[in-house]
Amino acid sequence: MTEKSPVTTESTGEFHSGFVAIIGRPNSGKSTLLNSILGEQLAIVSPMPQTTQKNMRGIYNEENLQIVFVDTPGIHKGKHQLNHEMYNVSTSMLKDSGVDLVIYIVDMSRDFGDEEDDIATKVERSVHPIIILFNKVDQMTLPEALEKQDLFKKRYPELAEKPQLMLSAINETSGEVFINFLRTFIPVGPQFYPADDLTDASLRFFAAEYIRKEIIANTHEEVPHACYVEIMSYTEGEDVHQITADIHVESTGQKAILIGNKGATISKIRKGAEWKMRGLSGVKCKIELFVKVTKHWRDKKGFLKEAGFAE
Ligand SMILES: Nc1nc2c(ncn2[C@@H]2O[C@H](COP(=O)(O)OP(=O)(O)O)[C@@H](O)[C@H]2O)c(=O)[nH]1
Ligand SMILES: [Mg+2]
């Protein structure tokens, strides 16, 4: 093998592995791509910006290959300390963060503005190899997509020569297409996790995520943004998992919306999350939810630290 030929698992027979962070604006399709790669609806996806609050690892396995993906919150400058912490978590991936490579997802269905400029500038300065993924090209014709790609390269000339790919993450085959593109960039390395692991996140983590997903699906506007789900207990019995969670909101008005008329909304949230947790755990799940008013939690450093948002 000459030095320049691409390194593939087939050509060397050696094990390849790497940590790959997925970054981009809120709503650009990071979690959708991860789910497509894993073939599972693992990460929560929604049209609401900032659906992903915390980094989540998803693990892609093949016989001689393991790629650990880190799904991140969207890079967005919001007004709360929470937004600030999420911004830091995501942009820290571009610094010396233990990842081998960064996937920068660009949403082609939206215009490039300040937010894209901010991210692109940070990506330009990153210490890591970068792959650019132009997503949502199903929203346009091919000439339009090429024109937009050109616009991107002119706006961010330092990124023009980076390896890049156009894709629609919602397309069923996108995961496979993307992995085939990515695999040549993954170095020789050890297997970090057992080959049948899909994630290193706990059932506790997913319980909170799936309750959040139901909150997003059943409430509107500011309410889902003002909610933080804290798992208070998770007991794994042989044929039933018992989960209790506090949902923190910022006002009594939000609490009333979350509970709904005669408890209808909170009951829907609970049942939806129970159903999803049953799918994930394989056993019956019973969830108890308590709604608490924790004023200004999104701006309380102590609370955010305890909730795992801040360093
Ligand atoms: N049309 C289209 N929509 C997409 C595509 N990828 C993601 N979406 C949608 O964009 C929204 C945000 O996706 P999500 O994965 O949650 O974005 P994230 O915030 O970057 O993780 C969801 O409504 C997705 O269904 C795509 O390739 N094409
Ligand atoms: Mg996401």
Descriptive report:
The protein has 2 domains: 9-185, P-loop containing nucleotide triphosphate hydrolases (Rossmann fold, 3-Layer(aba) Sandwich), CATH 3.40.50.300; 203-306, K homology (KH) domain (GMP Synthetase, Chain A, domain 3), CATH 3.30.300. It is 35% helix and 22% strand. It is built from 11 helices and 9 strands. It has helices at residues 9-12, 30-38, 81-91, 114-124, 142-155, 174-182, 203-218, 222-225, 252-259, 264-281, 301-306; strands at 16-24, 56-62, 65-71, 101-107, 130-135, 164-166, 228-236, 240-249, 284-293. The strands form 2 sheets. It has a 6-stranded mixed β-sheet. Helix 5 links the parallel strand 5 and strand 6. The model is unreliable at 1-9 (pLDDT under 50). Guanosine-5'-diphosphate (GDP) binds next to helix 2.
